[in-house]
Structure to design on (264 residues):
């Protein structure tokens, strides 16, 4: 696969920050047993990863704006380009030594997603996509799954954390979906859930109350893999609502049909 100069920049930045996160994951195993636990350590690892990504990306593309989960928004002199970055998506997994977490980098030009990268340093899976050029897992071209029957599908969701979101609604959604599908999953890293849909591992996924950095890269990834992504209404923008539903066209439609009426 011939990689563009832009994607080269993104991959280099993600691999450098990823090497550190992987080292930190090893350290966490030692901290698990200590009384204080690894929470502070993880929060530092998270911030350090974002700084590294900011440094590398802004050195390679000076002036681009930067929205990161940890450091907030940093405006740049170039008003048409913005990086949207989650340096560590799946923090709870990471904190528990579960190797399902990722760096997620999206790039918008004039408000349109033009590039996305999702990288899990624990297993070295690198997902990349550029607008109009397809989506890839390492060197392999991605295509969403072709299943059209819900009872054959494996679907993932996200669950609101303690004290957040609407737990009652989330239980109603899970019950409704569970009754129709072959399997329901909760993996704990939204960016990888989206990447798994792009890769055809999952047939569909939905979650509420996400942030732009959880979704930006994954939305492009799924579209470039031939899938459909929207908010819960079926035709709204997940980056505006924070709610996301995706799959191939047929499964996306089925999921919207089930989830939309539950919202009221
Ligand atoms: C979280 C993960 C998780 C999702 C949460 C997100 P974080 O991101 O993506 O899967 O359910 O809502 O906030 O906090 O680990 O970066
Ligand atoms: Ca996140
Ligand atoms: Ca995060």
């Amino acid at each position: 696969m011939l990689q563009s100069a832009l994607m080269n920049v993104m991959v280099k930045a993600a691999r450098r920050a990823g090497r550190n996160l992987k080292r930190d994951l090893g350290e966490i195993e030692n901290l698990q047993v200590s009384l204080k636990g690894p929470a502070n350590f993880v929060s530092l690892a998270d911030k350090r990863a974002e700084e590294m990504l900011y440094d590398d990306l802004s050195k390679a593309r000076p002036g681009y704006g930067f929205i990161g989960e940890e450091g907030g928004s940093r405006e740049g002199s170039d008003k048409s380009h913005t990086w949207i970055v989650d340096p560590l998506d799946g923090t709870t997994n990471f904190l528990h030594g579960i190797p399902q977490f990722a760096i997620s980098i999206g790039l918008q030009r004039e408000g349109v997603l033009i590039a996305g990268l999702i990288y899990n340093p624990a297993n070295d899976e690198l997902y990349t996509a550029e607008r109009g050029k397809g989506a890839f897992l390492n060197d392999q071209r991605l295509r969403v799954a072709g299943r059209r029957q819900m009872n054959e599908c494996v679907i993932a969701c996200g669950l609101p954390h303690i004290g957040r979101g609407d737990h009652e609604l989330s239980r109603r959604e899970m019950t409704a979906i569970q009754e129709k599908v072959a399997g329901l999953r909760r993996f704990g890293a939204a960016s990888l859930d989206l990447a798994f849909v792009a890769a055809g591992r999952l047939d569909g996924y939905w979650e509420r109350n996400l942030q732009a950095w959880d979704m930006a890269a994954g939305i492009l990834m799924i579209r470039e893999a031939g899938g459909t992504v929207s908010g819960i209404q079926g035709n709204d923008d997940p980056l505006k609502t924070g709610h996301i539903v995706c799959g191939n066209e047929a499964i996306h439609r089925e999921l919207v049909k089930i989830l939309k009426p539950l919202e009221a």
Observations:
- The chain has two domains: 5-141, 150-263.
